[in-house]
Design brief:
The structure is a homodimer.
Chain A lengths: L4 E5 L4 H7 L2 H8 L3 E5 L2 H7 L6 H4 L1 H17 L15 H9 L6 H13 L8 H10 L4 H8 L2 H16 L7 E4 L2 E4 L4 H9 L3
Parallel strand pairs in A: 1-2
Antiparallel strand pairs in A: 1-3, 3-4
Helix pairs in contact in A: 1-7, 2-11, 6-9, 6-10, 8-9
Chain lengths: ~200, ~200
């Protein structure tokens, strides 16, 4: 049987948006179970000596990023605009998915957050925006936001981010299959092939 | 008519190896003229504050690089082994291609250098190895090495590396088409599509 694909994503990461929008379909086609692993890049970048996104620290990389993102989004048929605030704070959305990663709506909510940030330039760091996105899925936004502030959720996210680091993750999106790491939206197909190879 | 594809590569760059081995066939199939732009990443990394390859500076990135390279090389049907010396000095080979970029043998020589470094772990920073690779192509290795030391060649390479920086290059391989930048072996197909779109 295929091994599960663990999808490590950060809501502020542009290329995580590209993967989030296509991973459910691809995993279903490949018959590969999906496990959501939202995490925070901040602590991982800090451990590499970066206090900001490398796309902001290294200007040439940053200029290129937005050109490449526009092209890749267009090729994937996705709406895209450069967020006016980058990287936009991802803590609240990440905590909500962490607390609900196994819920059937977790990936749909994640896609809604990514699209709000990278296609509509909405302030997904604000609770009222997150509440609206949850409500639109027929959920109780206020209640889920309140629950996401629970110390157990904060601790779970800290552990998830530590686990990311322990597995050698250094960027997002990343995919792990049975402990093997794949980095970047460009490697999603390769990661799925690897997951299927255990069948 | 298709615009030419400019291929910016660094002999010490692992992913440049992957592109160098397939670019001639792909460009010919796409009917896209190819221009070789060998350059040095050292000055470009130095301008970003890096005194070494980022794969050495950031250990997690380095660990991943060699796993990813092994997988990508296998998928491309290419021999690969991690060089015992990384990044291996690329100055001599780069000067030779700079001085002979329009020669019909320039890309074949480049492929030979990449394969020697990344498949056979040979010391391509040594003149005797470079001479042997040139001789094997029916060329006069000694004469070409002597000519590569000419001040005009050194100056041409300095200008090429400056041109890379001026065009926003920050890594290798890169491809430019009519001033538009594409970065990484994963974007070679996209760059060729763009070149063809001018037809």
């Amino acid at each position: 049987m295929a091994k599960p694909l663990e999808f490590w994503f950060e809501f502020a990461s542009p290329y995580s948006y590209l993967s989030a929008m296509r991973i459910e379909t691809l995993a279903a086609e490949a018959n590969v179970p999906l496990i959501l692993r939202p995490f925070l890049l901040g602590p991982i970048f800090a451990a590499q000596g970066w206090a900001d996104s490398p796309f902001n620290i290294y200007p040439a990389k940053g200029v290129y990023l937005w050109q490449d993102m526009a092209r890749e989004a267009e090729a994937a048929g996705l709406a895209f605009q450069k967020p006016t605030d980058f990287p936009r704070g991802s803590l609240l959305a990440t905590r909500i998915v962490t607390a609900n990663a196994a819920e059937p709506w977790a990936l749909a909510f994640s896609r809604a957050v990514f699209a709000a940030n990278f296609a509509q330039d909405r302030a997904v760091d604000q609770p009222e925006v997150i509440a609206e996105l949850l409500d639109a899925l027929g959920l109780d936004g206020q209640a889920l936001i309140a629950r996401a502030a629970d110390p157990s959720v904060k601790e779970e996210l800290r552990q998830q981010t530590k686990a990311a680091q322990a597995q050698g993750l250094f960027g997002a999106p990343s995919f792990t299959v049975n402990g093997t790491l794949f980095w970047g939206n460009d490697r999603l197909e390769r990661a799925l092939e690897h997951a299927k190879s255990f069948a």
